[in-house]
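So, could you explain this one?
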Amino acid sequence: MTNLNIDERSCRTDVVSVTRFRSRIPDLADAIIASCQDRQCFTHIDNDPIPSEGYVVDIIDKFREVLFPGYFSREKIDPISLKYTMGQAVTALFDMLSEQITHSIRHDCFRYNLPCSDCSDRGHEIALAALESIPSIRQILASDIRAAYEGDPAAKSHDEIIFSYPGIYAISVYRVAHRLSDLNVPLLPRIMTEHAHSITGIDIHPGAIIGERFVIDHGTGVVIGETTEIGSNVRIYQGVTLGALSLPKNAGEKLRGKKRHPTIGDDVIIYSGATILGGDTVIGERSVIGGNVWITESVPPDTTVMVEPPRLIYRHPSSV
């Protein structure tokens, strides 16, 4: 009986202690709210919503359902149910996509005090244009998947590549985001590719231009900058950077919209850890760039670039 009384007193003391701590929360909330008025900090406190990453993830998932019917949908799809299932998926994708595109356009209008541009109508029109592109996006993704399979002895099937290769996930998201970027959708394409970046470790800017049969093998640590141009049948490995040269102060204003990243010709292979920098740098067709190479100048077609083998030192216990 005595132990019960001790336990009861302890519990009551805990409740009082927690209440004492929680009583400070309203003052903390007031201080945080007051800090929202600081113009040097970033907030979006407005009646109109900003694009939401959560919704963007849903859009990516729905795009994958439509791009690869039968792979990522929960429902069974057969020749009889295809029209019904696809109709539902495309309708849901249109509703989600048009809403988030509208939010993206309206956000820019308000933030930059732009004249009214019929955000809602534009959002719906652009969503339709994006959906009209799905057959062509599917065709180029099919070429990416076939190239990945043909060049990887470890791949047992095309299904394995579609389901499990991070490079295909990142490229799929990029191809959709790139189309939205071409349609002048602000903010949304970058949120999409950055989500893929967070999942795969592959960072492809939606503004990059990438040809068919593109393969990213393994992929972790790959960076492809905004103004990169990549031809057809190109394969790159993990840790490759296609980036810009060292940027000066105020580079955002000075270089925005200018070519800062390299051009990669058709049929090029770039091995792991290679770094290729600069908007004037062109890697010629059919060239091979070896691992850990650092390149800031153009390479002619049909050239192999390699680092000289390092001198290795072997130490055996008997010699120490």
User: Anything to note?
Assistant: The radius of gyration is 26 Å.
